[in-house]
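Meet my pick.
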Amino acid sequence: QVQLVESGGGLVQTGGSLRLSCAASGRTFSTYTMGWFRQAPGKEREFVAAISRSGGSISYADSVKGRFTISRDNAKITVYLQMNSLKPEDTAVYYCAARTSGTYFPRVRVEEYDYWGQGTQVTVSS
């Protein structure tokens, strides 16, 4: 069982920045592919970013490329999402996810992840 706890969400103005964190449980964190997804009201959950087990491979959704940065610290068993130049359309609940098996990368579909956090709200005001 893997537990994921997100933090760092909040209210920010257009153009502002936020840094999300996702703290994981378990001693095998370094073997997990980690991802960030988001879900806006009335919309399906969508892929934002993913990072491979070592952090050597990264993938982003086109909508956030150049503005968001995913990173991980395996020693701290934490994955981060630095969000810059935020826009109102970035408003959503952001979820951290873990895939605990396989080496194929990237994983961009919701069903490819085994464990999910509870989500953290990000609201960008115009």
